[in-house]
Specification:
Elements (H helix, E strand, L loop, with lengths): L11 E7 L3 E8 L2 E8 L3 H10 L3 E6 L3 H7 L5 E2 L2 H15 L7 E6 L3 E7 L2 E8 L3 H12 L4 H9 L8 E2 H4 L12 E3 L5 H4 L5 H26 L4 E5 L7 H13 L3 E4 L6 H8 L3
Bound molecules: adenosine-5'-triphosphate (ATP) and magnesium ion.
């Protein structure tokens, strides 16, 4: 059981997950749990904030934890990212009133990491380089849109019909052996005939389709390996991104698994790091 309690005195407990793209911070103040996130470029500002805390216990995780530690002038615990994420997921599940102890966990961060949790023990079983970094990188290349919030807002208004090739497009005039609505090829439609007229909205929606379908397809296969049909999806790639959620949810359901998106799931690593300080 992971439990967060107000600690005696005025001390603050702080968990930080410094990832490839974003730094996630979870901390308790007067018994209230707070969440913040910053671009990794602001790692120095986060370090200064930590250095200015007078009475605090700190635990750091994530791929950039070493960089952050080197900027601190006080002691901090360091934790393996996968352990912290798992602890944080358990905490957030309990907050949602759930007691799952076996599931597949897919963390769609800059890259995508997949973990099998069985009887509360986690094991990393795979991943894919297609993740939130792909979403941002390809979107920028294809449309020139640089801002994440603008990207995901525009994508919601786009249709993938002219860009993606569906199974039914290939099986012309006969019934396909699998659902005709499945994507046969992301970006595989005759896009060069319409390339000059494709809108930013269409291109962004297609990039999100590519990322979402890849992540969910790999997850569904991993869930079979893990003997579990519940797939918990976390990571900042879902933040303000209803289209990615929709693609991942519908693909996961179509393939017979049960998707679950955690509230504040992007803070799993930070919350997990914080929970070891209680
Ligand atoms: N404000 C934002 N700026 C940039 N990307 C954002 C923003 N909000 C959400 N994202 C999305 O979230 C992704 C990063 O997710 P997350 O914070 O979970 O990864 P990370 O922990 O930094 O990376 P990793 O775990 O792979 O080291 C980005 O690639 C992008 O798709
Ligand atoms: Mg991460």
């Amino acid at each position: 059981m992971v439990e967060m309690r107000e600690r005696a005195g005025a001390s603050m407990i702080v968990g930080i997950d410094a990832g490839g793209t974003l730094i996630k911070v979870a901390y308790t103040e007067n018994g209230t749990l707070h969440f913040d996130k910053y671009p990794i470029a602001e790692i120095q500002q986060v370090a200064s904030w930590v250095n200015d805390l007078s009475d605090s216990d700190i635990c750091i995780t994530g791929g950039k934890s070493g960089v952050l530690l080197s900027l601190l002038d006080k002691k901090a615990l360091e934790m393996v990212e996968f352990e912290a994420t798992h602890l944080g997921v358990q905490f957030l599940l309990e907050k949602m009133g759930r007691d799952d102890d076996s599931y597949l966990l897919t963390n769609v961060g800059t890259g995508t990491s997949i973990h099998c949790v069985e009887n509360n023990q986690q094991e990393r079983i795979g991943g894919t380089g297609i993740g939130g970094g792909t979403l941002v990188g390809l979107s920028r290349l294809l449309t020139g849109v640089m801002d994440y919030e603008e990207m995901v807002a525009l994508a919601r208004k786009g249709s993938r019909d002219r860009i993606d090739l569906k199974v039914k497009h290939i099986y012309e005039g006969k019934t396909p052996p699998i659902s005709g609505e499945l994507t046969a090829s992301n970006f595989g439609n005759k896009i060069f005939e319409v390339a000059h007229e494709l809108s930013k909205e269409e291109l962004l929606a297609a990039v999100i389709g590519l990322v979402g379908e890849t992540v969910s397809t790999v997850s569904v296969h991993a869930a079979k390996q893990c003997n579990n049909s519940t797939i918990i999806y976390i990571g900042s790639s879902f933040f303000h991104n209803p289209l990615l959620k929709e693609v991942v949810e519908s693909y996961t359901v179509l393939r017979g698994a049960v998707p679950l998106f955690l509230e504040n799931g992007e803070y799993s690593g930070a919350v997990g790091a914080m929970s070891v300080l209680k």
